[in-house]
Amino acid sequence: MPVKNPTEINEKNILLEVQKTLNERLNALQKNQSTAELKPGQSYVEQLYREGLNKMGKKVIEEAGEILMAAKDCEHKGDAPSQQELVNEITDLWFHCMVLLTYYGGDVTQVLTEATKRFGTSGLAEKNARSK
Predict the structure, then answer these.
(1) How far apart are CA 26 and CA 104, in angstroms?
(2) Distance set, CA 27 to CA 24, 84, 93, 95, 120 (Å)
(3) Residue 25's CATH number
(4) Mean pLDDT of 25-34
(5) Residue 83 to residue 101: CA distance in whole angstroms
(6) Can you give the pLDDT at residue 84?
(7) What is the pTM of this model?
(8) How many Å apart are CA 26 and CA 34, to the nearest integer?
(9) 31: which residues sit within 8 A by CB, 6+ positions away?
(10) Is residue 3 assigned to a domain?
(11) pLDDT tens track for 65-94
């Protein structure tokens, strides 16, 4: 399947488009195929899926650490390049979390639905409600 025209992808649909791609990669792997537009070994996502939980978990932890380092740079430098690096690292973390979620049958829409349910609720109240 050809990649969607970049002009059709925007802030409102990017997470859903990434989710579609992740699903395609996982489905192809489960069928022991590579996605139509790629040769085997060309997809980073397929590689992560093949290597399993330990590799995906390692990437999530690695990206979380890189966020902390980028945040420290923002705190000390406070300039636009530091802030952009923080945005870049958070984007990487979101991506790797989506890879992991998809691997276990989840979907970004579930996360968006949960965030929507929690919106407007005190974080402390929501956390207390979960612990009961």
Answers:
(1) 10
(2) 5, 34, 22, 18, 36
(3) 1.10.287.1080
(4) 83
(5) 27
(6) 95
(7) 0.84
(8) 9
(9) none
(10) no
(11) 999 999 999 999 988 898 999 999 999 999
Which value, to the nearest 10 degrees, does the dihedral of the CA atoms of residues 108, 113, 89, 63 take?
-70
Give alpha helix (H) positions in the chain: 14-30, 44-51, 53-77, 80-103, 108-118, 123-130
Q: Is 82 among the domain residues?
A: yes
Measured CA to CA, the distance from residue 132 to residue 129 in angstroms comes to 6
Residue 87 lies in domain? 11-130
10-23 burial, b at 16+ Cβ within 10 Å, e below that, comes to eeeeebeebbebbe
**How high does pLDDT run on average in the chain?**
89
Res 99: pLDDT = 98
For residue 85, give both structure tokens. Answer: 């690096």
